[in-house]
Amino acid sequence: MIVKQFKFCNTMEVIGKLMQTVQVSSKYQIVIPKDVRKKLGIARGDQLVVSVEKGKVVLKPKPRDFTGYMLGLRKEIWHGIDATEYVEREREAWGKEQKSG
Questions:
Q1: pLDDT band at 41 (very low <50, low <70, confident <90, very high)
Q2: CATH class belonging to 3-100
Q3: CA–CA separation, 23 and 34 (whole Å)
Q4: Given phi > 0 = left and psi -120 to 50 = alpha, else beta, which region is 55?
């Protein structure tokens, strides 16, 4: 990996991608650098989705339509399975558990 550290700021260039260092405040807050905000179109009051992926903190702009965003995620787990039949079997199993419990 090629990394260049610039002397007068906390910016590194890794193979043409800018990476910046931010500091976590006493209230566990960070400031998103201006060029990153501009690139992603993040404005005051916008919400971000925070997740951990492969040991990294990931911030993404919250989708305006979460249902549309989630549509199709993890669809590979349904390969070869009829979703309607699956749901019907699950409902039957839940009904049996309720009656026997």
A1: confident
A2: mainly beta
A3: 15
A4: left
